[in-house]
Amino acid sequence: MYDPTVARLTYRALLGRRRALILGALPLLLIVISVAVRGLTGADDQTASDVLGGFALATMVPIIGVIAGTGAIGPEIDDGSVVYLLSKPLKRPVIIFTKLIVAIAVTMVFSAVPTMIAGLVLNGNGQQIAVAYTIAALVASIAYSALFLLLGTVSRHAVVLGLVYALVWEALFGSLVPGARTLSVQQWSLAVAHKVAEGELVTSDVGLPTATVLLVAVTVLATWYAGRKLRSLTLAGEE
Amino acid sequence: MAVEHPLAPAGDQTRIHDIGYRGYDGPRLGRAYARRSLYSQSLRGAYGLGRSVKSKVLPMLLLAVMCVPAAIMVAVAVTTKAHELPLAHAYTRWAIVMQAVISLYVASQAPQSVSRDLRFKTVPLYFSRPIETADYVLAKFAALASALFVLTGAPLIVMYLGSLLAKMGFAHQTGQFAQGLVSVALLSLLFAGVGLVIAAVTPRRGFGIAAVIAVLTISYGAVSTLQAIAHVQGSDGAVPWIGLFSPVTLIDGVQSALLGGDSSFPDGIVPSHGQGAVYVLLTLGLVAACYALLVRRYKKVGL
After folding, report:
1. Are B116 and A19 in contact (CB < 8 Å)?
2. Residue B168: which residues within 8 A CB-CB, separation 6 or more?
3. Which residue range(s) make up the domain with A55?
4. 3-state DSSP call for residue B260?
5. Distance between A176 CA and the closest CA of chain B, angstroms
């Protein structure tokens, strides 16, 4: 189910010079902010939870997920070079699965690791906050990668659609309409984090069983459908 | 039309065949015309006009998202016979409240405007026409800024017309409307500049979109987090200075300090007039810097 060559090519496409720059800039900003906050306020659990929840999990993880998830397949479909990959004797689901693994790995490295570091800087893992948000980032990485990889195969405007989901649906609707929070990767991963964290600083609107079921279902379904979609891919020219 | 072939002198074996190409001696429309065409084509393209149906969907949807809530607000104000729009300082605040929508629009349309020219290497073709680097940059910059001005100005017009229909006081509303227009004009210039500079670096459309949105929203997220923390720590004096570091808060500072609006800073802290002047200077400086960077970028493009 995993093809090393496809994985190597995907890694190179994802971590090419400029992509690696923007992927590295966001985590760096998070760490700089946490150092600044620690310097300004000292260790405070509520502040740590606000920064990690508001900035790391709500903004940084989805954007890195969009870049890695759609970047794993989108540009290839966009410039048509995907036909060379598809003409190789590889099953399409294998291609998708390999790219998914790569996207998950990249998202995890660039989102969960800096979240952990920022958490340690902010309050030295008091009340397990750093670990809880790291686990949330890890879980969210998997779901976001699968979701945005599917978007990359479905639409040529995958990046815009992914950002609309991450910024408009999760951030805007999620804060206005309570029902929208049930269908949000962010809340599902927070439910997992809630289980880990001590105390009531990390909360979620979704129960743990529901969240787990939805996370697994979304990841599996998105991967399966992306594989199907790649079997009957039509290459569209530039509009 | 018959073309006269000059007879070659007999015995001469080498000659250039005249295969009937004719020179153009009609009117030359010139540089200003080319610049105007590029501007109008880019402006139409920013709303998907003259492009496929699919590419009309997103810009029109975002325009609707900007205008429909304004229309609903006005309708509520008219039916309840209010003397003031429900949202205080609605004209200047609207663009700040709707900043996510505006950011998405810039992110989707700035790469659309310049990245494809870079990717398909058509930029040298533009410069084989009588336009100069500065003309191309000016046309693209002006087109995106105008498109943004339409996007941010349309809801203001909706509100203004609605408030006039509701007889809310002509002079008061007109003054606020004018202040709102100034604020969104500044915002359009700033956002267009930032978006184009980022988009002109990459030939990949998808990557350009992600980069623009990252710069606009992440800087806003970072700045508002720091402002909130500074406020909680009791150092309110630092809040306006932190606001200088992201495009959205920059415009927010200008409109609250000098154009009589409320700010979205924590606890509604409003920058002083002196700080407002710094905000305006920095905004204009950034616009000029974006223009200079673009000209520099296109000096050596594709050549």
Report:
1. no
2. B77, B82, B83, B84, B85
3. 4-231
4. coil
5. 13
Please give the tally of structural domains in chain A: 1
Write out pLDDT tens, residues A203-220: 777 888 888 999 999 999
Asked if residue A237 belongs to a domain, the reply is no
What pLDDT, in 10s, does the model give residues B47-89?
Answer: 999 888 888 988 999 999 899 989 988 888 888 877 777 777 7
Which residues make Cβ contacts (< 8 Å) with residue B155, sequence separation at least 6?
B66, B67, B69, B70, B94, B98
Contact check, Cβ <8 Å, B206/A71: yes
How far apart CA A28 and CA A32 sit, in angstroms, is 6
Residue B1 pLDDT = 47
**Token digits of residue A81:** 């070079």
Does the residue A238 lie in any domain? Answer: no
Q: Is A55 on the interface with B (CB under 8 A)?
A: yes
* A18, A50, A63 ranked by CB distance to B214: nearest: A63
Sequence ranges of the domains in chain B: 31-299
Instruction: Specify the pLDDT at position B217.
Output: 83
A161 interfacial to chain B (CB closer than 8 Å): no
The answer to whether residue A75 neighbours chain B at the CB level (below 8 Å) is yes
- B237 with B223: CB under 8 angstroms? no
Residue of B nearest to A41 (CA): B233
- The verdict on a CB contact (< 8 Å) between A160 and B225 is no
Q: How many residues does chain B have?
A: 303
B198/B196 Cα distance (integer angstroms): 5
Do the Cβ atoms of B250 and B282 come closer than 8 Å?
A: yes
Of all residues in chain A, the one with the smallest CA distance to B61 is A164
Residue A239 lies in a domain: no
Q: How confident is the model at residue A236 (pLDDT cuts 50, 70, 90)?
A: low
Among A40-49, A133-142, B71-80, B180-189, name the one with the lowest average pLDDT. A40-49
What pTM value is reported for the model? 0.82
Give yes or no for A183 touching B (CB within 8 A): no
- pLDDT in the model for residue B157: 94
The verdict on residue A236 lying in a domain is no
Are the beta carbons of B206 and A158 separated by less than 8 Å? yes
